[in-house]
Design brief:
Shape of chain B: flat
Number of helices of chain C: 9
Number of helices of chain B: 9
Radius of gyration of chain C: 21 Å
Oligomer: heterotrimer
CATH superfamily of chain C: MetI-like
Number of domains of chain C: 1
CATH topology of chain C: MetI-like fold
Shape of chain C: flat
Structural class of chain B: mainly alpha
Largest sheet of chain B: none
Radius of gyration of chain B: 21 Å
Chains: A alpha/beta (249), B mainly alpha (231), C mainly alpha (225)
CATH architecture of chain C: Orthogonal Bundle
Number of strands of chain C: 0
Bound molecules: adenosine-5'-triphosphate, magnesium ion
CATH class of chain C: Mainly Alpha
Largest sheet of chain C: none
Strand content of chain B: under 5%
Distance between the termini of chain B: 62 Å
Largest interface: B-C, 40 and 41 residues
């Protein structure tokens, strides 16, 4: 069974239909990269998956559990799905360590000592054990994003959703975040990543999904998408962002 | 013009200080709890048309828009006419508490709303319930942001506690200014007594200001409230 | 409190209105006094020579730290003790007006300090003297920026005019207590009526200030809120 299934997802804001029936399947251990022009509903799609935004229609399944069902405990489900935001959203009043520890103690109800050990291990994994006591304002953007990845990892998620994790960063800080993500993908983490970093997509993506106007236009493995896209518009877009973003990493 | 100050006034004024401080402390404490609840209701209590939101807003507008003296006399003189007997101390405390709760509600609302919306979203994404997110993420930040306006309010209420002298206080429940009035009415040294009592208030304000700045510094976190210093 | 109590209030409304008119007179008197003294105090604090600036600072500190009621009693009974003949009304305008001047000075000082330094430089570069530069360039901008702060000060001093009751000014609270003395069952309805009158006044005042703010708005010159 697929780890995640998204079926015919619709979302409208007022008169504007942002998602017009999106369907996706994600296997365990797979890394999917979602690309598409601004305003096509990529963020909306990710937020509908863990219901930070309520979809209007359609279903999302995590294994055999229907996320979109009114009866499922959404908080319990969210605890199993990591989310990494474009602008980090680290808790301003907490140190790096406490940011990673909060979900463990308050959501997973882990004893404090065990939570501390686990949080330190995750900070170490993203190379920031030395910054455990720093507040977000005392960290660079790249460091903040790595802490927020550690915060997601600590919850033992089945899947992590990344919404443009590097686009708020200065160019020289993008690499440190991407290399953490590449390592995660190689370790077998299941990830859906909205990004325009094509170097990342080439090196670790199992599939690239091209969205435009609220629908999936085309999807396929990177080689195929780059070399012989079925739809001209896909090739055009890929060439454009490869020029714009280069291929850092 | 020869001024006469009598050291014999001091013990009684000291008693008055004690009562003013008590009144202020109680009303600020209870007012903070009420204000936090009202502020939370105004932010999270459903939309504009939810009855809870509406009631909280009506309360806040009424108590902020009308004079404290009217509230005090309404309670002290008005409640007994409908069968609710209330002494001057309790009437003063009640009026001050209801009044400051409305102002503090607005400070809480402002502080809660100035916590960035991404904070709530990140907390919910981790699997926290709304209540947990408010308790562990929003309020700890709001409570730090609220310290400066809350300090102002505390000083305001300390000064406003002198209003209870407008009710007929018994000698044993007289606030600082009530004591001053009773001393001055006996020896007619109005100027000296009132100047002295003014200095008492100034001293208390000074002590509070220094103490609250110290607290604010103690709980300050980089990046919260004051512009953070990144590296 | 039954319905009949409310119908009994009606004949007393004109008296209450006459009372609140006195509160409005107090308000107008004290806020103009406060404005004049406040603007001068702020100018002295920002542009004056050091010692004068300190004196202005001490002045605002005193009037911001002492309760209104203490000031009212100090000015009324304190002055009469030295044979200075003051009416209760005049003492109230003086005490509350000087207190307000301290708050207005603070609002105004903030506005003065928030005007970019380049404005003064550009004015001086044109050949305007310091005083003229302040009068024609800095002041008009600072006054506009102060309006938001003033609307707060307005609502607060409007309500504080009731404190003049304490020294015997015959304003609305005094009228209310006369009515109450004749028919004490009216106590609660009377005070609620007075409260509603203040709600209306506060509202009307804020709308008026909002209108003034819009009329005087200059694109690009926004208050920091
Ligand atoms: N909360 C909201 N209320 C109203 N409209 C919204 C809301 N969130 C998103 N939209 C609209 O939905 C559309 C899709 O937004 P979304 O953020 O999902 O796009 P995106 O593909 O992530 O774009 P970007 O690359 O700029 O992040 C946009 O037109 C946006 O204005
Ligand atoms: Mg987006």
């Amino acid at each position: 069974m697929a780890l995640l299934r998204v079926e015919n997802l619709h979302k409208r804001y007022g008169h504007e239909e942002v998602l017009k029936g999106v369907t996706l399947t994600q296997e365990a251990g797979e890394t999917k990269v979602v690309i598409g022009p601004s305003g096509t509903g990529k963020s909306t799609l990710l937020r509908c998956i863990n219901r930070l935004t309520e979809p209007d229609q359609g279903q999302v399944w995590l294994e055999d559990l229907e996320i979109t069902s009114r009866r499922s405990d959404i908080n319990q489900i969210r605890a199993k799905i990591g989310f990494v935001f474009q602008d980090f959203n680290l808790f301003t009043h907490l140190t790096a360590l406490d940011n990673v520890r909060l979900g463990l103690t308050k959501v997973r109800r882990m004893p404090r000592a065990a939570a501390t050990d686990r949080a330190m291990a995750e900070l170490d994994r993203v190379g920031l054990a030395a910054k455990a006591g720093a507040y977000p304002a005392q960290l660079s953007g790249g460091q903040q994003q790595r802490v927020s990845i550690a915060r997601a990892l600590a919850m033992d998620p089945k899947l992590i959703l990344f919404d443009e994790p590097t686009s708020a960063l200065d160019p020289e800080l993008i690499g440190e975040v991407l290399s953490v993500m590449i390592q995660l993908a190689r370790d077998g983490m299941t990830m859906i990543v909205v990004t325009h970093e094509m170097g990342f997509a080439r090196s670790v993506a199992d599939e690239i999904v091209f969205m435009e106007g609220g629908v999936v236009v085309e999807q396929g493995p990177p080689e195929q998408m780059f070399r012989s896209p079925q739809i001209p518009r896909t090739g055009e877009f890929l060439r454009k962002i490869s020029e714009l973003y280069g291929e850092s990493s | 013009m020869n001024l006469v100050f009598d050291p014999a006034w001091l013990p009684r004024l000291g008693q008055g200080v004690l009562l003013s401080v008590q009144l202020t402390a109680y009303c600020m404490g209870i007012g903070a709890v009420l204000g936090a609840v009202l502020g939370l209701v105004r932010v999270y209590g459903g939309g504009r048309w939810s009855p809870l939101y509406w009631a909280a807003s009506a309360y806040v507008h009424f108590f902020r828009g009308t004079p404290l003296l009217v509230q005090l006399l309404g309670i002290y003189l008005g409640l007994p006419t409908v069968g609710i007997l209330i002494g001057p101390f309790l009437a003063g405390l009640l009026a001050m508490t209801l009044n400051t709760a409305a102002y503090q509600a607005e400070y809480f609302r402002g502080a809660i709303q100035s916590v960035k919306s991404g904070q709530m979203m990140a907390a919910r994404a981790l699997g926290m319930s709304r209540g947990q997110a408010i308790g562990h993420v929003i309020m700890p930040q709001a409570l730090r942001l609220i310290i400066p306006p809350w300090s102002n309010e505390l000083i305001y209420m300390l000064k406003y506690s002198s209003i209870v002298s407008m009710t007929a206080l018994r000698p044993e429940t007289m606030d600082l200014f009530g004591v001053a009035r009773s001393i001055a009415s006996r020896n007619f040294r109005y100027f000296e007594v009132y100047i002295l009592v003014a200095l008492f208030y100034l001293a208390m304000v000074l002590i509070l200001t220094v103490a609250l700045r110290w607290v604010e510094r103690r709980v300050r976190i980089p990046g919260l409230g004051t512009p953070g210093r990144g590296i | 409190m039954n319905l009949s109590a409310w119908t009994e209030i009606a004949p007393h409304i004109p008296v209450l209105l006459r009372g609140i008119l006195v509160n409005i007179e107090l308000l107008l008197g004290l806020i103009s006094l406060g404005l004049g003294v406040g603007v001068v105090t702020a100018l002295v604090e920002v542009y004056g020579p050091r010692p004068l600036g300190w004196a202005a600072g001490a002045y605002t500190w005193f009037f911001r730290g002492v309760p209104e009621i203490v000031l009212l009693f100090l000015f009324y009974f304190g002055l009469s003790q030295f044979g200075v003949p003051v009416s209760a009304f005049f003492a109230a305008v003086l005490a509350l007006g000087l207190r307000s001047s301290a708050y207005q000075a603070q609002i105004f000082r903030g506005a003065l300090q928030s005007i970019p330094h380049g404005q003064m430089m550009a004015a001086r570069a044109l050949g305007l003297g310091r005083v003229k530069a302040i009068a024609y360039v800095i002041l008009p901008q600072a006054l506009r920026l102060s309006l938001a702060g003033w609307s707060n000060e307005f609502s607060s001093v409007l309500k504080d005019t009731t404190l003049a009751w304490g020294i015997g000014v015959v304003e609305v609270m005094r009228q209310a207590s006369y009515i109450r003395a004749r028919n004490f069952t009216l106590t609660l309805p009377i005070y609620i009526t007075v409260a509603l009158m203040f709600l209306v006044l506060t509202y009307v005042g804020n709308v008026a200030i909002g209108l003034a703010e819009r009329r005087l708005r200059v694109p690009g010159l926004e208050g920091r809120r």
